[in-house]
Amino acid sequence: MKKEAGFSGVIAPVLTPFGKDGSPCAESFVEHCQWLMEEGCTGLAPFGTTSEGNSLGLDERMELLEDLVDGGIEPSKLMPGTGACSLGDAVVLSRHAVDLGCGGVLMLPPFYYKAPSEEGLFRFFAEVIEGVGDDRLKIYLYHIPPVAQVGFSLALIGRLIEAFPDTVVGLKDSSGDFSNTQAILAAHAGFEVFPGSEVFLLDGLRKGAVGCISATCNVSAAAIRRVYDNWQGPDADRLQAEITALRKAVQAFPMIAVLKALIAHYRRDPDWARVRPPLVKLPAEEAEKAIRTLAVQNNFALDFAGAG
Amino acid sequence: MKKEAGFSGVIAPVLTPFGKDGSPCAESFVEHCQWLMEEGCTGLAPFGTTSEGNSLGLDERMELLEDLVDGGIEPSKLMPGTGACSLGDAVVLSRHAVDLGCGGVLMLPPFYYKAPSEEGLFRFFAEVIEGVGDDRLKIYLYHIPPVAQVGFSLALIGRLIEAFPDTVVGLKDSSGDFSNTQAILAAHAGFEVFPGSEVFLLDGLRKGAVGCISATCNVSAAAIRRVYDNWQGPDADRLQAEITALRKAVQAFPMIAVLKALIAHYRRDPDWARVRPPLVKLPAEEAEKAIRTLAVQNNFALDFAGAG
After folding, report:
1. In the predicted model, is pLDDT for residue B24 greater than 90?
2. Which residues of A237-258 are buried (b: 16+ CB within 10 A; e: fewer)?
3. B91 in contact with A at a CB cutoff of 8 Å?
4. What is the pTM of this model?
């Protein structure tokens, strides 16, 4: 392991499977999470963007989180998404995660009002922290401006770390802008920064990042873990090139839909392909194209024969 | 009245007052809504953007709506915001509104994922309608791309009207683009279209709109109502010019914060100025400037002496 930290390594923002009636399928969810840990994930981040987290109700998220713990996932390895537009909702979800023993929470900023002031965002987090009122709360800021539109400026990050050094401990940078990741790392030694894509894993580790939290971990955790384990070794660049190539091939398709299509295919479970509106399932011909392209060009396959 | 319709006229997207502990103040909320109806509002749209609706939890919204009905507001005059990122949440809120007898609901599209497909948005609304499963449900689409980023294209509006002609009955257009309002009106006779600002009230009525739903109605409903009542009379353009001037003066300040500051001032109730993070209260000097400017330039004042 690179360093002792709350979280480090390869963290999967886990997909959420839905049953025929559209409700989350707890059994498939737990099975997938157990498999991800066996594949080499060092932690799991349910209820993020890839998880269709904001398409779930509060009760659905809390029940699924309890199912994971009941299913044997070590709570300290869990970093559930608990951000919300409503401060009260963010408090409820975060307190629940802390009470379950989760190692951290990954918090979106409130994302309805656009261009909120730094002061308004600071107060939102200050009030969530006060509302939860528990020293065990460890917040990882979820910076994903391409989707949330609202993000964390360097000034805001600095202010939050200064005010809550034992609580605001890290950040997932899904800006897609590695210069932003570098600027955060340069400004805050010891802050646990995770690029939001494994494309930046090796470069990130070399600059002080502690791992990555990436959608693609849902299907390629083992390969990503090899980069993490060997980042200072002679094969690091070659291993990184492989996961970068796979990521680029995957993201040529709508990300969440294609990840679910891949798992549906290799698990022989068509239910896995289901998404919640406003997302749409990958059309069958696109799914077949993705499976074929990845298998031929990236030697990609998932083996569930020995799983769960 | 211009036409017989589910809703028409001057509809206030009502502000939500918060008490010292940050929770909604039901008493002030009901009092404000009663006053707005006395001022000439023909309907109320709680839990929209101006209401900080997405900063409220589901329970908070449902309790406040019940408080309004208990407070004597005719449910048929209520068009609460029931859109949500989670389809299940949108169903819960919409069914509750229908069960209370609300005349309609004003629904945002799911706004977390950006650039969702037309198909995905269509399915979201189709599943909400199926989930509520009640012919009394009347949906007004809430088009506010400057904030929600996700909006309703002309194609999507057409598809929803065609599939659900008795349910999808109108739209609030807060795009700020009157050519969009005109295009919707031209395409769908009988569809109840409300510009999202009284700046477009007279022009809208002349093109077939049925009224307006505007933040500023919280402080100038009576003047806006005069335009609505006299839109075919000789004074229409002069009356419109007055409300346009007031709107422009108000929106020189952050809209929600300044509206609350104005009510706090004229009600002599500083609690009214409170907002929820990520919004911030208008600084005292800005509030004083707004009050002074509007009084001098627009002859603006609120008289609560006879209210409540």
Report:
1. yes
2. eebbebbbebbebbeebbbbbb
3. no
4. 0.96
